[in-house]
Here is the input.
Amino acid sequence: MVLAQEKVDDKSNEITAIPALLDILVLKGCLVTIDAMGCQRSIAEKTVEAQGDYLLFVKGNQEVLLDDITEAFNHGKIEDEYTEKEVNHGRVESRTTRVITDLSWICNKEDWKKLVCIIMVFATRYNKKTGAQEQSVRYYISSKAASAKYFHEAVRSHWGIENKLHWCMDVIFGEDKSKKQAEDSAQNFSLINKVKISMKRKRKIANRDNEYLLE
Here is the structure.
């Protein structure tokens, strides 16, 4: 469900838009998951101050933090671990989530508001037809004290949003390639596209019913 959206200014990026979006949401008791672009100290602080918790994806834009986390998982003690395996569409997928709460590995841990743990998700994908195998490792930081299974499900839920919402916007409606610029047209069309029925059915109804089209 889309709760709110915030336009990114032409000369800015998501780093400035995310705090504005957080301001209009009730975050108390919620877990906020954000991609690497949103892994910023100010965003973590704003989330905690709103009585929520964060789960932030760490990549090269936070190089020192990423190095510290990598070192921790190479040499530190794993406090909790959860693994899930799936077989679907000719692929065997395995995901292992590990959690470390010993933050002595993190040089500037006090810069991240209420940081309590670091998380690693190691995934493998094996194609039974071709024999090809892929591996990936992702690292996260969080202000929430929770189990490896909890973080495993949270990460999967986050990517579910990417696949079921953002992918539809980009691929079916071509939102990223859109040239709409007149007044509020870009925001209006984005809002229309997010109505919660199938994309195909939405277009059919709009084609056959002028009142629905206008609505």
Remarks:
- DSSP finds seven helices and six strands in the chain.
- The chain has two domains: 14-172, 180-215.
- The radius of gyration is 20 Å.
